[in-house]
Specification:
By secondary structure, this protein is mainly α. It is built from 18 helices and no strands. The protein is globular, with a radius of gyration of 21 Å. The two termini are 41 Å apart. It comes from Micromonospora antibiotica.
Length: 421
Amino acid sequence: MRVNKGAKPLGFLLRNPHFGTLLVVNLVSSLVGAGVGIALSVHLYQLTGSPIWTALLAATPTVAGVAFGHLAGTVTDRWGAPLRIMRLALFLRVLVLMALFAVADSPLGLICAVFAQAAVQQLYTPAEQVLVADYVTAEDLAEANGLNSFASNATRLVGPALGGFTMGWVGFRWTVIGVTTLMLLCTLLSLLLRGSGRKTPPAGDTAEQGTEGAGDRYLAIVRRSRRVRGLILLQILDAIREAPLSSMFPVLMLGVIGATSGQMGLVNSLFAVSALIAGPMIGTVVRRLGYRLPVLLGAAISHGAIVVLAIWPSLPLAYIVFVVSGLPFTISWVGGQTWLLLSTPLSLRGRIVGTTGAIYAGVSLVAMLASGVLAQWFGPRWVIGVGAFIALIGLLAIAALLDDRQQQHSTSQPAQVTSAT
C-alpha cells in the first residue's frame, strides 16, 4: 500500500503539503538561476567581446562553492533553523539581483554580483536539503528528492531558453526586472512554510546504526562510516568525469564532431529530457531495489556512455548517449544524495551537504583547469574519455565501500563507535 501511494506524485504532494510548497519555491528559484545565468553570459560577452571574461563568469560559482560550502553547512547545523536560513538566502538573492542595475556596465561588477549570488546559493542549498528531510519521513525521502530533481531538470529545459529569448526581446535591464520580481514572489511564498518537527529519524532500516554517536565533526563520520566514504567518493569521481565534459563539451561538439550550435543545444537538452523521466521514478526504484544497486549501476551506465562517445565521437552517438545517460545518472545521483542524508545524524546533515558540495566544487575547478591544459596536448575527446574512465573504474572501490555485509560488520558494536569519538 505504501509503495502504491508513493508512486503517485500528486498523492504524495497532497500528503506532504509543506514539501509541495517548498517544491514550488525551489522550482521558481531554479528557474531564476537558469534564466539569469544565460542573460548574464550573453550580456557580458556583448559588453566585452572577450571569451576570457565569459570564462571567468562560468568559473565564479565554482570558486564560491569552494570558499563557502563548508561554512554554509556548518551554519545550517549550528543555527538549527533551516527554514529561516532558506528565507534569508532568498531575500539576499533579491538584493543581489537588484544590484545588477548598478553594475550593468561593469564587467568586474558583474563578476562580483555572480560571486555574491553563488555565495548565497551555498547558504541556500544545505538548508533546503535539510528542510526536505524534515518535511517527509525517511521512507519518503527518496521520492521527495526525486520530485526535486524533476523540478531542477524542468528548469534546465525551460530556464536557459526563457532567459535567452527574454534577453533578445526586451534587453538586459528588463530581464533583470523580470527575474527580480520572480525571486521576490518566491521569497514571499516561502513565508507560507512552517517548521516541521523533523520527521526523518536518525537511524533505522536505511540509516546506519550508531550514527548519532558520531559527534559533531564532518571528518569524524567520514572516518567511521564506510558508507559515507563511499558516497562522498562517488561524488568526487563524478566531478572528475563531469568537469572535463562540461569544459570541453563545446570543443567536442563544434570542433571534433562538427555539430552546429543548435545541434549542440539539442544534445544538452536531451539529457534533461530523460532526467525528467527519472525524477518521479526514484522513490519506487529504491523501494524495490534498495540504494546500492541503482546508485552503482546508474553511475556505471552514465560514465561508460561518455567513454564510448569519446572513443567514437559522432553526432548520432551523441544524441543516443545523452538521452540514454540522463535517466540512470539522475537515479544514481539523487539516490546517492538521499542515502548520504539517511546515513548521517540530524546534527550533521547541513555540514554533509555543504562540505561535500565544497569538495565537489574544488575537484571540479581543478579538473576544469587541467582539462584545458591537457586538451592542448592530447585533444578534447581523450581528456573527456579519460575522466569518464577514471570515474568508471573508481566504482569498484565504491562498490566495496557500499557493501552491505561490510557495513553491518562495521556497525555491529555501536557502543565502541561512540566511545571512539
